Amino acid sequence: MSESETLSPAWTLGVAAALLLLAVATAGTRAAAVARRDGRRTLAGAADPLREAARLLRQRPRRTVAADLPLWRIASSALLPVALCMAALVPIGGRTLVPDGLGVVWFNALDVSLWAFFWLLGWGANASFGLAGAYRFLALGLAYELPLMFALVAPAVAAGSLDPATIGGAQGLWYVVWMPVAFLGYCVGVLGFTLWGPLRAPAGDDIATGVLAELSGVDRLLVAAGRYALLVAGGAFAVPLFLGGTDGPWLPGVAWLVVKAAAVVALLVLVGERLSVLRPDKALEAGWVVLLPLVVLQDLVVAVAAVTGSS
Amino acid sequence: MQHADPWTTLGPTLAPLAQMAGAGDGTGLGVLAAVVFWVAAVVSVLAGAAVFHVDSMARATYALALSFVAVGLAVLTLQQGYVGVVIVLMMVMEMAVMAVYMVMFMGMNPALMPMSMVHGKWAALGAAGATFVLLAAGALLVPWPERRSGPPPDLTRALGEALMGSHMLVMVAVSPVMVATIVGGVLLSSHRTRYDRLGDDLDRRPADDPQPGGVGR
């Protein structure tokens, strides 16, 4: 097991700050776009997320009858820490905060933990719409998780390592160029575990925003911030996996990391907004009959290239 | 005279366990790893006990998930990085799916109807106690072999080779058989066959399914 060099633990604060800033920037940009579409002033729209955060901080919490408060609270407060753990796995200049050389498996374990948290988010409220959203999430989870797992396999096989730092450093030609299907599977997975774009059915408008419906006050703020942070963390982890790591001309590695991560997040948001919602009952077949075989085929191509030494 | 390792002062019983947890093998992480190991071990036992104490399926399921996550962390401190992460990964996913089945088959409304998580209490307690005594007696009384050399550099690889090395061919041969068994079992237990789906001449398109799929087969 190759172990990369360790970043000083002080970087944790930097990673957390960068994650939050990028999450706020993503929310602001999106709100500005919405304001522009609605004919409001763009700049005023960009501040909407902050205004909403201030409103939620002052809002009196609203409870449902016989809610399972401990499970509900655990779920709503877990998204941000999960996003931070994911972001902590992203290597900066070939060095990482978690030097056990298993970053890819850790990322997978963290994204699977979101199965538990999103289900509990819907369950804890003890309300119909939340519960419907929770079950929708698991249905979508079954559909996106296996393609995501096999998508994570492709860069690991090509670089012969489960360490994101090694994978990021092993790319002459960016992996996204010759593993486009794995990148697609990865992006679908990120959309899935952030309830975004075509996979937003668990928080769908048709069930009054589902798992988010009964949230109020700080809990609602934590979940909203957590979803944006997860989106940013998912975008950032794509950088070592598919986008050549933090390497780039002129600018330092951190700057390239931010630029590339922001590009992935922008891609996810822009494409995600333009696709209609995938019905959860139709998603499993689409995931397993169409996407999964394509991703496995991609893995086969990568494995053959790795064995014959042409990668 | 050899200097006393702080862990040996815990008594002859705990010393091998502390050594298992990485204490005193000169990695520098020894004491920290041992503390994490013991905290994780205690949490896993307590969360396992909570499974039978709580009164809702969701809490029981996720108490079990917490117990498994703690086991995964304990395994991590034994320098089995990959095995530890995979335990966390698989068990959380499994519990997320199991919660659905437990709620489905227990017919419990979310959080509204508290129910006991135990039945056949005394027989179960007896069986559990006897199993514990048997396993604990085995762990304490078996003459464990002395370690003859230091740990290998990559424990996960060493474990994998010890478990699989000479049986790889068997494992490779068994896995398709297992998959075939699973698929066959599902097919045999399904009350609908392809003739129900596609008609007597297998030419009905799209298929007549109670739950239509996403790609219109």
Distance between the termini of chain A: 20 Å
Number of helices of chain B: 8
What is the CATH architecture annotation of the largest domain in chain B? Answer: Up-down Bundle
Describe the largest sheet of chain A.
Answer: 2 strands, parallel
Structural class of chain B: mainly alpha
CATH T-level topology of the largest domain in chain B: Four Helix Bundle (Hemerythrin (Met), subunit A)
Q: List low-pLDDT spans of chain A.
A: none
- Broad shape of chain A: globular
Mean pLDDT of chain B: 81
Whole-angstrom Rg of chain A? 19 Å
Identify the strand order in the major beta sheet of chain A.
1-2
| Poorly predicted parts of chain B | 1-16, 21-28
Number of domains of chain A: 1
C-alpha end-to-end distance of chain B: 77 Å
Mean pLDDT of chain A: 90
From the structure provided, what is the oligomeric state, counting identical versus distinct chains? heterodimer
What is the number of beta strands of chain B? 0
Reading the helices and strands of chain A in chain order gives EHHHHEHHHHHHHH
Chain pair sharing the greatest interface: A-B, 38 and 30 residues
Total domain modules of chain B = 2
Radius of gyration of chain B: 24 Å
Task: Produce the secondary structure layout.
The complex is a heterodimer of chains A (311) and B (217).
Chain A: E1 5-6, H1 11-37, H2 42-46, H3 48-58, H4 69-88, E2 95-96, H5 103-124, H6 128-159, H7 164-169, H8 175-178, H9 180-193, H10 217-242, H11 253-274, H12 280-308
Parallel strand pairs in A: 1-2
Chain B: H1 14-20, H2 30-53, H3 57-77, H4 81-106, H5 121-141, H6 155-164, H7 168-189, H8 194-198
Helix pairs in contact in B: 2-3, 3-4
